[in-house]
Amino acid sequence: MVTSESRTPANVPNLYDGLAGIVVVSILAGAFLYAQQPIFGLLLTVAFGSAYATGRIDDLEHGVVVAGLWGFVIASVWSIGTFLSFGVATILAVIGYGYWRDAW
């Protein structure tokens, strides 16, 4: 188990930050240049970036929850493909996150 005393502070960059940056640029380049789906590429980039940042700042469980909820949103957009599905899935993901954090 990792304690807060043994972790690298979140404001100190490490090797994984550079790797995450390379992944983000690769996702954006693939979405814009190859797949020609810039909105979906931006959605994937925000999902990856927020899950990585959450896992870096907080514990692994928090990062997995955020990644799972983003997976739900991305799956709904990919399968249904409308902005309404994006809105509904995002609202449900925020409600699920609030229940997980005991905010409501």
Automatic annotation (TrEMBL):
Keywords for the protein's UniProt record, in alphabetical order: Membrane, Plasmid, Transmembrane, Transmembrane helix
Descriptive protein name: Duffy blood group
Residue ranges of the TM segments: 15-34, 39-57, 69-100
